[in-house]
Amino acid sequence: MAFWRRNTHIEKERHVKANARDYNDKFSYADNRIKTSKYNIFTFLPINLFEQFQRVANAYFLVLLILQVIPEISSLSWFTTIVPLVLVLVITAVKDATDDYFRHKSDQQVNNRQSQVLIRGSLQNEKWMNVRVGDIIRLENNQFVAADILLLCSSEPYGLCYIETAELDGETNLKVRQALTVTSDLKDITKLMDFDGEVICEPPNNKLDKFTGTLYWRDNKYPLDNEKMLLRGCVLRNTEWCFGMVIFAGLQTKLMQNCGRTTFKRTSIDKLMNTLVLWIFAFLICMGVILAIGNTIWVSWIGRNFQVFLPGEEFQSNAVFSGFLTFWSYIIILNTVVPISLYVSVEVLRLGHSYFINWDQKMFCRQTNTAAEARTTTLNEELGQVEFIFSDKTGTLTQNIMVFSKCSINGQTYGRIIDVNDFTFNQNNCSACVDFSFNPLCDKAFKFYDGSLIEAIKLEDLAVQEFFRLLALCHTVMPEEKSEGHLVYLAQSPDEGALVTAARNFGFVFRARTPETITLCEMGRAVTYQLLAILDFNNVRKRMSVIVRNPQGQIKLYCKGADTIIFDRLDPSSEEFAGEGLRTLALAYKDLDEDDFEVWMKKLLFASTVIENREDQLAVLYEEIEQGLKLLGATAIEDKLQEGVPETIACLNLADIKIWVLTGDKLETAMNIGYSCNMLRDDMNEVFVISEAIIAEYALVINGHSLVRYSTVLRYLAFSFVGIIIPSSVLLVFYFGSDACRFYFVVTTWLYCCLLTPAHALEPQLEHILLDLACLCKTVICCRVTPLQKAQVVELVKRHKRAVTLAIGDGANDVSMIKTAHIGVGISGQEGMQAVLASDYSFAQFRYLQRLLLVHGRWSYFRMCNFLCYFFYKNFAFTLVHFWYGFFCGFSAQTVYDQWFITLFNIVYTSLPVLAMGLFDQDVNDQNSLRYPSLYKPGQQNLLFNKRQFFLCTLQGMGTSFLLFFIPYGAFSVMVKEDGSHFSDQQTFAVTIATTLVIVVSVQIGLDKHYWTAVNHLFIWGSLTVYFAILFAMQSNGIFGIFPSNFPFVGTARNCLSEKSVWLVILLTTVVCVVPGLVVSFLRVDLFPTLTDKSRKKEGPQEQNLRRVRRTSSRRSAYAFSHQQGYGELITSGKNMKMSTVSSAGSPGRTPHSSTWIENMLKRKNEVSCTSDESGNRAKQTPKQQVRA
């Protein structure tokens, strides 16, 4: 019963007591063991067999096997079915077991990590899987957090610690956590052993940003929130050690709750084949019924006459019962229309395609020594049918490395420029990297490409010096000097680190800070500034300021923020930076009067102590003093993309693949990356931003009917070049509500914003409409989404669009969407291996996705489709000869061919040529596959193998079988041997048809091939040679003497194939069977050429220019502030003033707004229509009329 309760009990709240395993065991909480594998040693066989028999064909052959052991109805030996059935089951099981073994191996690697657990008064090393809820564990710097733990104390003052959450949300910037004051002093082992607090909190859930609980200790209650928790998957940074109490363990941790369930993925071709097998089975039953009726009629009218000299069993005299038995006999004989060897061959092909991916040196990353890996072998052809790609941003599209690229100071622009060919040159034609050797404290890794900026510094240009002084003072970075002159900056945002590092290299080195001072080294001279106030950033202000007093006693305010906040109109240089996809940040300053500052400071101190509306009052004061700023300049930070990302995205767009970016970053960062990747471009008609904010004075409230109109307008305008950006709040209302919603549309000169309040929820029909809107757009970016919401977006598209989806990511926060998508791709990057372990395919860089889809995916789909078409063709041609023969053998279920030919036809005689075609055939080479991305579209439209193609190839097979039977039958009825005797025996007829069949299907596969290799030649000619060798061997006198009952066709081949007339019949039948298909193929290529035909003739679509196009104008800000409130208050309080601490960054730029967007779009549409009509009318005029005009 305990096991039953553990699996069915719904936890409403969790009770966890520290250092009390016996108490916590009563609740049967999950241990810390994780499991991503599907099987164990006991469940493998039943579960794997269940999955394999979900294939209708496998179940079908199992039924046939049962029928074949009944002697009254079986005309074939049982081994003709059981051998291939067992073979395909074993091959598939071995493959699945191998895949799951590696999952077990990775699970064991994680479960066997070591952690220090406080047990019986001492710290003991325990494996992660042995950690239990309620245990107190010790973490050390750079260690992964073993479970979801409540932070109790740390080596830092006030119980602070710093963590990196890349595995959870993809962000590599550091975050601060702080323990409760009452537990922050529990730094002694004895005190921790005596700690017996009890935590009552929420049950396990997947909300990464929320935790609600209460600590009960010493008769007091202490509230707990997410800022007190360290979640599994985080890494402890810049903190020597910390202690925590385990709250959630194993599969109940928030990370694992977001990972989703491992599902059995099947391709669309697998599903189609299941349907086709049912069709074939119905067709087989129809043929069986026809032949059974024929047998009943034959026995009633003719068969009774044979009873005198061919007496049979008593039941055979009953015509109806004889027909019943004949039905099952023909079901067995005709079962080869769906041979079990088809599934064996499909598994072999998929395995070969997987090895081609693994062996592709063009997908091998030499920097990390990482090869591409197909971690599954069941989805290769699905790679050729992808319509939607869902991509993470951080670590997938970008390297998350910020580089100080350019700046504008006092109207002068400094720094490098990137032209359309990505060559780097300097504004002043001085392309050499700046030499910073004059500065002993410089960062050796920093590079800048404009020596004139150094010259301005050395000439003591006041504006340039003030610019870098601002960068060195206005931030929340913490310095750590590990040795003399060896500085390490600990920044919560990589932007902050890049800006402070730039100031450091240009001679303004940030050395140290205290709660009251900031110390710089300005051009080798130490200068200390008194820190008077930090005007912290948040998502509304989108800027931060510091007020300092310099050594001369002057009070200055330095401010940096989003350019859309600092200026009313952008400076041209800043517009240029934004046009290049760089993160622009405006810098300004203000001289403050001493008396005015003292008055303002008193107001600030008062506002800091009020209880109600404290934030609002502080915001008013900040706004008051930040007026009248003087513009100093602007910076441009480049978030370095991975190599080849814009080109890859452009190429995939040409293949009609829609790319959606799902990121945990905020709006501004997501937009900026969209522009950098060329996903958002200036040639797009509009960019819509769906946001959670409401701007009441510009808001237009519309109902669901209006939203439908909005969708209709978009369709009318045919906005194929539109980008749309969706934040997580909109995704939340997709899944957590049912009431009507309000939409707010706000319009500006360049950016259309669709704003949705989270207070209302989408109705189901509005969910469809919003999805339709997103699918109308060329680009979709979802920002600030949780891992589970990523999976929900993928599931939404899968459910409503029925398109093949691919998810790609590199962190644990991407595991859920990787498992949800049809195809999951993991990038072995900087965020661990969780995404790779959960993926179906993995490689080192995003750019390899282009080759995976357009080359390997397209080839796999093309080869698999051709293989299936040919396989069904040859098996219908092979099997339906029995159907025609039934009308001439009294419907007796006698086989045309020798039993050994039936057994070996699909296994030996025709298996290798079709495998060679399925492995090596290609319509165009890999260069042309990448050169013409539009060749990928037939796979998306499922054109190469569908129900229509299946019908055509089976029709061709039926026609071939008809000709194979009736041409030799007619010829043999009038033909005589060279000695004048007739061809009257069935064995000669059987050998003639069998030989003709093997030759016809070999010639046909030769005509169907697009690409000949030595292997193809070897397999085709080798198969024909093997056929004749086995034929003469099995029908020889020697083997008949050894096994007389098993090889009755003694001497038939020798006697039959020595006749010239037989070879003439074989030649005639072959020509008549092959020529019609050949004529149709030639006419189709000439009259209805496909994209492939055009490209093979070098008449394909024009090669697209995939190089990056430099953007020239766009007004947007991309200062990458962090998501949460800043830590300015923490810095000024002095709580974190230890060298191993860190702090924060800022917030996104303001979304501009306007109104009446629909009218503007319709007006613009009408203007375009008028212009086009006018130009059309002018085109219709005669030259004289145009001259007169």
Structure explained in plain terms:
- With 1189 residues, the protein is of the alpha+beta class.
- Helices cover 44% and strands 18% of the residues.
- It is built from 41 helices and 37 strands.
- Strands 14-37-36-35-15-28-34-31-29-33-32-30 form a twelve-stranded mixed sheet, with helices on both faces. The protein has a ten-stranded antiparallel sheet with strand order 18-17-16-27-26-25-24-23-22-21. It has a six-stranded antiparallel sheet with strand order 3-2-4-13-5-11.
- Strand 22 (517-522) and strand 23 (525-535) form a beta hairpin.
- Helix 9 (268-301) packs antiparallel against helix 10, helix 19 packs parallel to helix 27 (848-886) and helix 32 packs antiparallel against helix 37.
- The longest helix has 39 residues, at 848-886.
- It starts with a helix and ends with a helix.
Quick take:
This protein has 41 helices and 37 strands.
Set down the secondary structure blueprint.
Layout: H1 2-8, E1 14-17, H2 21-25, H3 44-52, H4 56-68, H5 79-111, E2 114-119, E3 122-127, E4 136-140, E5 148-154, E6 160-164, H6 166-169, E7 174-178, H7 189-194, E8 198-201, E9 213-217, E10 220-224, E11 229-230, E12 235-237, E13 241-248, H8 254-257, H9 268-301, H10 319-333, H11 341-359, E14 373-374, E15 386-391, E16 398-409, E17 412-418, E18 424-426, H12 451-458, H13 462-473, E19 478-483, E20 486-490, H14 494-505, E21 508-513, E22 517-522, E23 525-535, E24 543-549, E25 555-561, H15 563-566, H16 572-579, E26 583-592, H17 594-607, H18 614-625, E27 630-641, H19 645-654, E28 658-662, H20 667-676, E29 686-691, E30 701-702, H21 704-717, E31 722-727, H22 728-735, E32 743-747, E33 752-756, H23 764-776, E34 779-783, H24 787-801, E35 804-809, H25 815-820, E36 823-827, H26 834-838, E37 841-843, H27 848-886, H28 899-909, H29 911-920, H30 926-931, H31 937-940, H32 947-974, H33 986-1008, H34 1014-1034, H35 1037-1042, H36 1052-1056, H37 1060-1087, H38 1091-1096, H39 1128-1133, H40 1157-1180, H41 1183-1188
Parallel strand pairs: 15-28, 15-35, 28-34, 29-31, 29-33, 31-34, 35-36, 36-37
Antiparallel strand pairs: 1-8, 2-3, 2-4, 4-13, 5-11, 5-13, 6-7, 6-12, 8-9, 9-10, 14-37, 16-17, 16-27, 17-18, 19-20, 21-22, 22-23, 23-24, 24-25, 25-26, 26-27, 30-32, 32-33
